[in-house]
Amino acid sequence: MAAALQILPRLARAPLRPLLLGGPVARLASGMALAEHARQLFESAVGAVLPGPMLHRALSLDLDSGQLKVRDRSFQLRQNLYLVGFGKAVLGMAAAAEELLGQHLVQGVISVPKGIRAAMERAGKQEMLLKPHSRVQVFEGAEDNLPDRDALRAALAIRQLAEGLTADDLLLVFISGGGSALLPAPIPPITLEEKQTLTKLLAARGATIQELNTIRKALSQLKGGGLAQAAYPAQVVSLILSDVVGDPVEVIASGPTVASVHSVQDCLHILNRYGLRAALPRSVKTVLARADSDPHGPHSCGHVLNVIIGSNALALAEAQRQAEALGYRAVVLSTAIQGNVKSVAQFYGLLARVAGAHLTPPRAGTFMEEDEQLHELAAKLQLPDLQLKEALEAVAGTGSPVCLLAGGEPTVQLQGSGKGGRNQELALRVGAELGQWPLGPIDVLFLSGGTDGQDGPTEAAGAWVMPELASQATAEGLDVATFLAHNDSHTFFSRFRGGAHLLHTGLTGTNVMDAHILFLWPR
Ligand SMILES: Nc1ncnc2c1ncn2[C@@H]1O[C@H](COP(=O)(O)OP(=O)(O)OP(=O)(O)O)[C@@H](O)[C@H]1O
Ligand SMILES: O=C(O)[C@H](O)CO
């Protein structure tokens, strides 16, 4: 464990030396240098979407005139500024905002995960914490990412603040992943328990976040534009950190400041699809039936400005800049990596072989069959923004080191009872794929990390692998296939080379899904 990648606390690093190429000792050195580059890039990706930098990019305050600028809009501050927030990254956003806005802020209420303040304190992340006499009231709740009584109390306090505002006021709304569970206000007569049960059932049966949040919006007072309506006639500016592929503002935290466009029929289809329609509690049926005949229609959100201030794309763009500064030819392949982790791992395995062959001219065309398989698999994964052709063209014949970046959120279907997370499982699977066939005269490294710093229920953010992983593991008496069969990737990486391939960042205070880094370095 001691040797594991420790990232964010150690911002100052020794300068990176050129890679030594050649025999086995040199190859080990090059592996370590690649790992160092990978963690630097991961660090820079996360750094671009930390609350402080994000807020400073999104907001600027003219102290003399008291004008607050958000993008190209200006708001006059005169003791009329309020703040609410909900989500896993909102504590640091509120702290950065209070620092920036100072006395202009009249009052705030935020709903954040249970234990987050203590965790940030333990991690020494003072910048993520509000000052002792803060004007922002903090509620902690939603243990295990489920709406609970504490989160309900927070939601009611947020609603109360919003409802008390006038046309002269400006409400800043901070939104990040996990916001849905942290802002539960079921429409009566639905109870919190009924909403919790339905959410759990939908999630357990594999509903997508789009489907889950469509239902949440229909059953909630504040989601699907309800919060914006509660704040009317105040001006509302939502600053949103996206944890959903494609950054859909109506889905992230169930769009509390975005008018819902879904009909009751949409909800019934979803409930049917997961076999839940027949067993719906009477209260849910009542609310859906009422919504059907609601003469007011969907909430209007004309007084709202919704702004995405942090996303996977922004994080990867920064990593790309850093990679180029380190001398790599860097391409962002996709920010929408989704699908079963096994297929995603196969995709990266094939990509390494095909891109590797393109990289070294005499071998171009060697992997025709793999090239075809790669394109087929990419089509099957339906990655809407995939830049595969561009990446392969950028690599072709250059002979220079290449860095392919991607992000998103693959899914793991849990079969075993081991300890792991989707990033460690993906890395382990990619390691196994890379070791299956010779890759030619290139060094390859793949890293997968969760930008929130916590991969599943483990303390690591992710892990990195090289093609030698499986053979080195065997030499240590570790069988990769057995660990994978039990979803036990964290146990594997904790034992393998004393934990040296684990990526440890601690909680980062942000969350824009996962980042994947693939290096190809011609020897
Ligand atoms: N043993 C395991 N091996 C692999 N993946 C696991 C394991 N246990 C849990 N997971 C996965 O971890 C994920 C839950 O962890 P986590 O809290 O990091 O993700 P999340 O709820 O999507 O939150 P976030 O988006 O904030 O990362 C689920 O996708 C789950 O399938
Ligand atoms: O809170 C939620 O709804 C999810 O994290 C998606 O934003």
Fourth-tier CATH superfamily name of the largest domain: Glycerate kinase, MOFRL-like N-terminal domain
> Helix count?
19
Radius of gyration: 24 Å
For the sheet with most strands, the description reads:
7 strands, mixed
SSE class = alpha/beta
Number of E-state strands: 16
Mean residue pLDDT? 91
Overall tally of domains: 2
Overall 3D form: globular
The helicity comes to 40-55%
CATH structural fold name of the largest domain:
Rossmann fold
- Placed side by side, the strands forming the largest sheet appear as 1-15-14-13-16-12-11
CATH architectural type of the largest domain:
3-Layer(aba) Sandwich
CATH class of the largest domain: Alpha Beta
Relative strand content: 15-25%
Distance between the termini: 30 Å
User: Which stretches are poorly predicted, pLDDT < 50 over at least 5 residues?
Assistant: 1-26
Keywords for this entry:
523 residues, alpha/beta, Rossmann fold, 2 domains, 19 helices, single chain, binds (2R)-2,3-dihydroxypropanoic acid, seven-stranded mixed sheet, binds adenosine-5'-triphosphate, glycerate kinase, domain 1
